[in-house]
Design a protein that fits this description.
By secondary structure, the chain is mostly helical. It is 66% helix and 0% strand. It is elongated.
């Protein structure tokens, strides 16, 4: 007997089907907006924080969504809030259980920030980006995105870091991963970047072979044809121009939608800047426009030319310091070169992301003269990846630098200030707003370093650069001009007459602070020759200037001894009896003055200490008599 459904069965099925149809129709006609659409509505209304918060909440629920993270970072860059994204992805990945996509977005968030720190800070952010890609690569060696991301980062590094060969290895790995698989738009990037790396490494023939192989899979693609149609005699210059610091970090595009695109974009890594750009097809990490002025590029060029020599203690004689006013063959040249070597060594150690114990070991391995400047370099390096727009980052900077070695805390902070002086030569107002986030102690030394760097690297081409200090509140300006004086000591080439001439260019109301900074620089860098330091303070020196010079000498000797008392004591033992007596008298004055330095003036220990030293030297008959008796 054949089974037949009853009318009730048939009607029930019909009702269910009708219900389903109605539900589908309802969903079709009243489809809810996606989270990105909702966020976009917030952005359109100027509710930027609400839009970002909404996206962050959903990314916590969907950390595997590359598209959501890409959309979020696009608006982060538009709003200049890269530090917010970095903090968010850091929290998202902190327990180590996040999917690869979270680390990809974290890596690209660091790259998003590069245009805001400039070419000399780019390496630090790139290293942090690489670290996120390597977390994924360590877990999954055949992850295409991780290998490409590491290679792409290294490819943008200047030649002197010798990372091109490493970049090539990662692109070769990408090529190996994608061989035999269905062609994806993203695979075009491998052919382009690998060929570019080969050119930078000197293997031009293989570069053309690589681009031709890519053209077989992506026939007629404009970026490949541009390279293939560029004559050999011009290809090296064209590729090097593509990756030079001014072109490659001006305004980086980290839109990675090529990873889920259905078709190959018209351009992904255009070789010429004038080529049109197509929104939403990124992955190229290519500059849209340069942001560096001529003075910054000249500084960067000087840095790149001299870095191989600055990094090698045995090659310091090849360093050209003439750009800073230090002439070859002058008695100051070797000393300044050694100082620069120490700073660059610390800078590079921080760039490599060494753990604290390694940094301490490297510092301990240096000779006593060089070690303090290594610590200043650490401060420079740490600050290179810190945004002046983030008060939280600045506060953490002060605490973290203190963890390296508290005896060199002042030098770490001054080094950090030097970095901001290098990279933000025309943004004094923004610096002032940011430095106020620091505690008074850290702020004071950061201002000293800031004034030092602005003067050292820009004064020769534009003496008016030191007038920026007049825009600061008086306490900050005093510390700024103390740093200006330190730089003028170097720029004068240790010539007393030239020193007086440059000091006279400092605004009158802050000139005495510059005198103390000048003398501090003298004492700090010539602690092994205190006779030359005291020779600068002649009996004929104006009394007011003389007392400020003695104040600066006191500070230089004291801070130097704070970091390495054994070295300073040994240098004083080699000095004449009179100079040794003078130095010890001033060290005693500095110690007594420091006890009163934490009171008043908003807790600014730098300015308070300087004032307390000066007051003792000015008013203490016994100090004058004892100093005179040393003769």
């Amino acid at each position: 007997m054949m089974y037949t459904r009853s009318w009730l069965d048939r009607s029930s099925i019909a009702i269910v089907l009708a219900g389903i149809i109605l539900i589908v129709a309802s969903c079709t006609t009243t489809r809810q907006p996606t989270v990105m659409q909702l966020a976009e509505q917030h952005f359109q209304r100027g509710e930027n924080d609400q839009g970002l918060t909404l996206l962050e909440e959903h990314m916590q629920q969907e950390p595997q969504s590359l598209e959501l993270g890409n959309f979020y970072r696009k608006h982060i860059v538009r709003l200049n809030q890269e530090d917010r994204a970095i903090s968010f992805f850091k929290k998202l990945t902190q327990d180590g259980s996040s999917p690869p996509e979270a680390y990809y977005n974290f890596a690209f968030a660091y790259i998003d920030k590069i245009p805001r720190v400039g070419p000399m800070g780019a390496g630090f952010l790139s290293k942090r980006s690489i670290a996120q890609f390597k977390i994924v690569q360590d877990r999954a060696p055949d992850d295409w995105i991780a290998n490409y991301g590491i290679g792409m980062n290294y490819l943008h590094w200047p030649d002197y870091f010798k990372k091109t060969e490493g970049a090539l290895g990662y692109f070769e790995k990408c090529m190996q991963i994608q061989q035999g698989k269905p062609v994806k738009p993203q695979y075009l990037l491998t052919y382009l970047r690998m060929g570019d790396a080969l050119v930078r490494g000197g293997d031009v023939q293989r570069a053309y072979d690589t681009w031709r192989a890519g053209e077989q899979l992506f026939p007629g693609h404009a970026d490949l044809l541009d390279r293939l149609n560029t004559p050999r005699e011009r290809i090296e210059a064209a590729i090097r121009d593509l990756y030079n610091p001014n072109n490659s970090i001006g305004a980086i595009d980290t839109d990675i939608s090529i990873l889920w695109a259905n078709r190959v974009p018209q351009h992904v890594v255009p070789m010429h800047r004038e080529l049109p750009r197509q929104a939403g097809v990124g992955g190229q990490l290519q500059a849209a426009s340069p942001t560096l002025d001529a003075s910054q590029m000249n500084l960067f060029s000087w840095f790149t030319r001299n870095l191989p020599y600055l990094s090698d203690r045995g090659a310091l004689s090849k360093v050209d310091m003439s750009a800073l006013g230090v002439q070859r063959g002058s008695h100051l040249e070797n000393r300044v070169n050694a100082i620069a070597h120490g700073m660059i060594s610390g800078f590079m150690a921080e760039l490599e992301g060494e753990p604290l114990e390694t940094l301490r070991s490297k510092a301990a391995a240096l000779d006593s003269f060089t070690r303090p400047f290594f610590h200043e370099g650490l401060g420079m390096g740490y600050a290179a990846a810190v945004s002046v727009d983030s008060g939280g980052e600045l506060k953490r900077m002060s605490a973290t630098l203190n963890d390296i070695d508290p005896n060199f805390q002042r030098l770490h902070l001054a080094g950090a200030g030097m970095w901001f002086g290098l990279e933000n030569a025309r943004t004094t107002e923004r610096i002032a707003e940011s430095f106020q986030q620091l505690d008074p102690f850290a702020e004071a030394y950061a201002y000293e370093g800031y004034g030092f760097a602005r003067t050292l690297f820009y004064y020769k081409s534009n003496p008016q650069v030191i007038n920026a200090g007049t825009q600061l509140r008086s306490e900050a300006a005093a510390n700024f001009y103390h740093g200006v004086g330190r730089a003028l000591w170097i720029l004068s080439g240790a010539d007393p007459k030239a020193g007086d001439q440059t000091l006279e260019t400092v605004p009158q109301e802050y000139r005495l602070h510059a005198y103390s900074g000048f003398a501090m620089g003298m004492a700090f860098t010539q602690v092994d020759d205190v006779g030359a330091v005291f020779a600068r303070v002649t009996p004929g020196t104006d009394k007011e200037h003389r007392s400020m010079l003695l104040t600066g000498i006191t500070m230089g000797l004291y801070i130097r001894r704070l970091g390495d008392p054994g070295y300073v004591d040994s240098m004083l033992q080699k000095a004449s009896a009179g100079d040794r007596c003078r130095a010890r008298e001033l060290l005693s004055v500095g110690s007594d003055a420091l006890k009163d330095a934490s009171v008043g003036n908003g807790g600014d220990m730098h300015a308070n200490w300087r004032a307390a030293i000066h007051a003792r030297i000015e008013s203490s008959d016994s100090a004058h008599e004892t100093f005179a008796a040393c003769a």
